[in-house]
Amino acid sequence: MFNLIIILLATLNSEPRDSNNYRIAKYIIDHLQTLEDCTLSDLAKHCFVANSSISRFCREIGFKDFNELKIQLIRFQMESKQATNKFHYQTMLGRSLVDSYLTSVIENLTYMVTPDMESRINQLAEDIERYEKVAAFGYMHSENAALSLQYDLQTSRKIIYTSLRFADQVDYLSHVSESDLIIIFSDMATYFQRVFARVKPFKDTLHKPKIYMVTGNEHSALEYVDTYIRYHSRHDYASHPYPLMVIASLISLAYASRCEMNVNF
């Protein structure tokens, strides 16, 4: 359901404010509930751009054409009416908002640990050291974990790739091989369903990248994911994206520890 809004927000976060793509994405977000009958020419006039700019924008955010964008706009309007309240979390009766929310966050962080979490984090740290080409991706809140990992690993002199821009993530994943290590942060393990909505990814199993997925989905079993780093989650507003951020920090700590060991030897 939230594919469209995530793509549009990612465009706002990565495009210059004076660019056509920013202007178009901003207008669509501001008028999501009123664009059902909007034509390509109508949208171009409202955004003060040429029709060709709208067509180019659609392709750059991952759609074939304007008609596919319209389908997503209609779907968003239909499904948003059925959406549950995203701000739901386990409240504490009789406590203030701050006390109740922070207590719920802390409880979720305590609850998140799984038996094999540390061993798999250490395994990933070893692979980050072995692979020259490493990339980390996530959607919206989850991408913050990828950005945090990128920043912390460079402190240990390991440079990895990530991008806020959805189209850049898709492009990168479309050109990977067995020499790549990919780390995906995805609370519900739906990242690849969103990125490759119409096709099955990594059909060539002999030349696919090595993939780790950090997720709170305890049942996901995608055949092309090599290793899951799972955590327990209530999947409410007090539990996301904090476990992903914690695990990103733990990966950085494990990698830094390996670097220190190598220096001592």
In short:
This protein has 265 residues and is an alpha/beta fold. It has helices at residues 3-14, 20-30, 40-47, 51-60, 66-80, 97-111, 117-130, 141-155, 166-173, 191-195, 242-264; strands at 133-138, 180-185, 210-215, 227-230.
Record keyword descriptors for this entry.
11 helices, 4 strands, 2 domains, 265 residues, 8% strand
Describe this entry's structure for a reader.
The chain is of the alpha/beta class and 265 residues long. It has two domains: 3-80, Orthogonal Bundle (Arc Repressor Mutant, subunit A), CATH 1.10.10; 107-264, 3-Layer(aba) Sandwich (Rossmann fold). Helix content is 51%, strand content 8%. It contains eleven helices and four strands, in the order H-H-H-H-H-H-H-E-H-H-E-H-E-E-H. A four-stranded parallel beta sheet has the order 1-2-3-4, with helices on one face. Helix 3 crosses helix 4 (51-60). The termini are far apart. Residues 4-80 form the HTH rpiR-type domain. It comes from Candidatus Fimiplasma intestinipullorum. One of its GO terms (molecular function) is carbohydrate derivative binding. This is MurR/RpiR family transcriptional regulator. It holds the Pfam family HTH_6.
